[in-house]
Amino acid sequence: IKAVMIIDGFKYEAAVKPGSSVYDLMILLKSQNKIDFSGKNYSGLGFFVEVINGLKNNSVGKNWLYYVNNKPAPVGISNYKLKNNDTIEWKYEKKSF
Fold it and tell me: What's the pLDDT tens digit per position in 42-59?
């Protein structure tokens, strides 16, 4: 299946296997040296992104939040299964929760 990831206005396109998660897509892009990211895996919650391309989450303000087809993501990146032609966009913004 095809998917697009947008980070800071940069667009990355990739093909992944059916059943792949947003996390799988990010690992693929990282293995191709297109992006860099890190974070932590939380039991029961999944993987939480803390840094993308050197820009870290900020405990007093902005964090990396992701959107699927222009809507806030319903679940964490390790739990969202990509659908063909999904657009995943990472935004560095203030938390609204």
Answer: 888 789 999 999 999 987
Q: Distance between CA atoms of 36 and 27, rounded to whole angstroms?
A: 9
Question: What tokens does 30 get?
Answer: 């990282």
Phi-psi domain of 96 (left: phi exceeds 0; alpha: psi -120 through 50; beta: other): alpha
CA atoms within 13 A of residue 75's CA, in its CB half-sphere: 11
User: Is residue 18 a contact partner of residue 7, using CB atoms and an 8 Å limit?
Assistant: no
Q: Is the pTM of the predicted complex or chain greater than 0.85?
A: yes
Which residues, at least 6 apart from 89, have a Cβ–Cβ distance to it below 8 Å? 5, 6, 7, 66, 67, 70
